[in-house]
Amino acid sequence: MQKKETKKDPKDMRHGYTTGACATAATKAALTALIFQETQKEATITLPIGKQVSFDMSTCEFNEDTATAGTIKDGGDDPDATHGALILSTVSWSMGSGIELDGGIGVGRVTKPGLPVEVGRAAINPVPFKMIMEVTQTILQQSEIHKGVRVEISVPEGEEIAKKTLNERLGIVGGISILGTRGTVVPFSTSAFKASIAHAINVAVTAGCDHLILATGGRSEKFGMELYPDLPEEAFIEMGDFVGFTLKTCKNKKVKKVTLVGMMGKFSKVANGVMMVHSKSAPIDFNFLAKVAAECDVDEITLENIKTANTASQVGDMMLEQNNKKFFDTLCKYCCLSSLKEVNGDMEVETIISTLKGVLLGRKTIHSK
């Protein structure tokens, strides 16, 4: 008999470390090897949260002029695309003065404005950039060395890994980003997803987009692209379950119009004022769906069936069987009203509900000042 797999409690999940922390540790090991001409098996750094952590080096090579050290990124129990990636730092003496930090193979380069890194620079975010610069400066001072130093961070598999991320959409080409504000990776953290949403919105707005398509998932986003083929790629944002956060971020960035694209399950919650639509955040309110159906000339037997339904999709199927388009349009109306309430108006909101196969069920637009 096959043993049933049990899911870990989030509290018991193992934290990992960011690409920024790995790059900092690799830099410390490489510079130390260069100065002392000795192989470094590990490097201990202080994370932004104040915690000291030692990183094992999987490689360390050096000569009199340059040294390279690398560590394998451990994402802990988080399903991170960069888990297991080799993060390398190559440190070499330079003819100039000061410290030069850049990205090499597998580290993306920023091509669109709106990100926390300037266009043309390697995608090494501000906190990791500061960490690497500070650890380099500290070692040089402690060793009383006044030479110029060049640091290059690279990720051999970075270009392939980047295909699993949103980097290309954000205008980061050629590899991954070196990220991390805490130094640690919290398993299934919502903060990382929210940060990617905020970055995507900022890139879109900076590119001049005043109409954004906010999709709950990949299929919905694809459907939105089919409905709005003339909008630029930056205008399409995958918001996942974070409807309220995404709407508020759009409002703060003065986006004029948003189009919500999703399916019955999650939008049944949005219509009822629930703005975090994860399956565990709030159950489907079938009495609410029955109330909406009652406004759309649905008979009493069907109303009772709606109240005892198992899923929102089942309710949608009932309405499809009765060819009741008014129900879906009304549900879209309630989604618009809930969204406008969430952001205190002054925005145009469109809601589109589709099936899993990309069939349009309902559509409604409401503008509020």
Structure description:
- This protein has 2 domains: 13-185, CbiD-like (2-Layer Sandwich), CATH 3.30.2110; 190-368, no CATH class.
- A hairpin with a 5-residue loop joins strand 2 (42-46) and strand 3 (52-56).
- The model is unreliable at 1-11 (pLDDT under 50).
- The chain has a 5-stranded mixed sheet, covered by helices on one side. A 5-stranded mixed sheet has the order 15-14-16-17-18, sandwiched between helices. Strands 1-13 form a two-stranded antiparallel sheet.
- Helix 1 runs parallel beside helix 2 (126-142), helix 5 runs parallel beside helix 7 and helix 8 packs across helix 12 (325-342).
- The protein starts with 15 loop residues before the first strand and ends with a strand.
- The protein has 369 residues and is α/β, with parallel strands linked by helices.
- Helix content is 36%, strand content 23%.
- The radius of gyration is 25 Å and the shape is elongated.
- The protein has 12 helices and 18 strands.
Tell me briefly what this model is.
This protein has helices at 19-36, 126-142, 158-162, 167-170, 190-206, 218-227, 243-252, 264-271, 286-294, 300-307, 312-321, 325-342, and strands at residues 16-17, 42-46, 52-56, 59-62, 66-72, 86-94, 99-103, 106-107, 109-110, 148-154, 172-173, 175-176, 184-185, 211-215, 236-238, 257-262, 347-354, 360-368. By secondary structure, it is α/β, with parallel strands linked by helices.
